[in-house]
Amino acid sequence: MHLKWFSDINYDYAAFAFPYENWGFGISYHNLSMDEIQKYDINDILLNETYSPSDSMVTIAASYCINEKLSFGSNLKYINSKIESTYASTIAGDAGIIYSGLKSFDFGLSVQNFGGKLKYVQTQEDLPLNFKAGIGYHGNNEKNIIPKVYVDLNQGIENKLYVSAGTECDFFLKPGWGGSLRAGYRSRDINYAVNGFSAGGGIMFNDNIKIDFAWVPYGELGDTYSVSFIFILNDLFYGNSRK
Is 195 exposed, middle or buried (0-12, 13-18, 19+ CB in 10 A)? Predict the structure, then answer.
């Protein structure tokens, strides 16, 4: 996935996941970067030099399905941050659990960014520890349309509680071919986004190729757009039995 943000900020993401019996494993790479920034000295005098800050992260994840109703997962991530010639790195983790014991509803709990600190020269910073609780509803396939609704609460150690919500409607033109329409809301963005709303959609080809796109406005800062390509390799792991 490539995301072009405002102020010359770029975000790139790639991931690969595969199942093994009741387990799931994955690896991902994230990179946040900016275009070249002009340097100034401590007296605010322009220098004939530039620099480009960046943050990157590599994550290794595993999940386990205990039974049809309960699953849990965790990951370990290596984070590297660069500001001019100064580097900081750390290792942190996330963990979560999902319960699907009620018809059409899923419930989840997770904790993010535990265990890591970034140290720039003499300054040490904790990662933003976050706790999340969510609920999801997925409707039945009626007339080749499946509605979905998701809501979660996020509470950071140093931030106020905020709500994220999203809805998705999947439709199928024929088996393996279709698309999705999506809309989202996040209360944390309400002060600088267009009322905190976002929108997007997706297209599915032959049950194993998906193209997703999203639009998130940030008021005077500008709009952001992202495009994702997803390849589902069922045949590699299951043959034709899962088609």
Answer: exposed
| Distance of alpha carbon 72 from alpha carbon 91, whole angstroms | 21
Return d(Cα 89, Cα 57) in angstroms, integer: 9
| Six token digits for residue 151 | 């809501």
What's the rounded Cα separation, in Å, for the pair 5 and 32? 10
Query: Which secondary-structure segment (H or E) carries 237?
Result: helix 234-238
For the purposes of burial, counting CB atoms within 10 Å of the CB of 216, is it exposed (0-12), middle (13-18) or buried (19 or more)? buried
Q: Which amino acid is at 83?
A: I
Q: Which residue has the tokens 């010639």?
A: 85
Please check whether residue 105 is in contact with residue 98, taking contact to mean a CB–CB distance below 8 angstroms: no
- The Cα–Cα gap between 20 and 3 comes to 31
- For residue range 159-180, what is the model confidence (pLDDT) as tens digits? 788 899 999 999 988 887 899 9
